[in-house]
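A favour, since you know our structure tokens better than I do. Just paste the record in under my message, thanks.
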Amino acid sequence: MLSRLLLGIVCSLCLFSCDSNAVFDAYKTVPDAWNKNEVVSFNIKAPDSINPYNLFVNLRNTNAYKFNNLFLIVEMNFPNGKAVKDTLEYRMAAPDGTLLGTGLGSIKENKLWYKEGVVFDEGGEYTVHIQHAMRKNGDVNGVVDLEGVTDIGFRIEKPSVQQ
């Protein structure tokens, strides 16, 4: 009986963990709080120079996250030295304050759109830098240590085929 249960759990995990669209998917852990000067970086080898890809910033957070939005500065550096920097805002909570995202328990996972249909037309290594840019309403200075964020990730996917 116990072996059937374990087999069922293992099979379920395999089904949910298989993701044929993922080309790159990595996370970096934030120790206690995400300091405004801490830049999380990912080095990415260009998948190919023909096909378009969708790019995401992934974020795991706990109930200690106190804001209903999130401001990020995301910079992509190309192999030839060009850089593209974006300031992005994401909604992190419903109007009633309930945190958005998926997951059971106290950790929520958010898959945040970064760019759609990106073609990596330069061979070599790309680097993505992610930094938070949170501020409290009315404050000039930003939030120094952003609490409640546990992991920051970056993901590249093949676009889903529409039928």
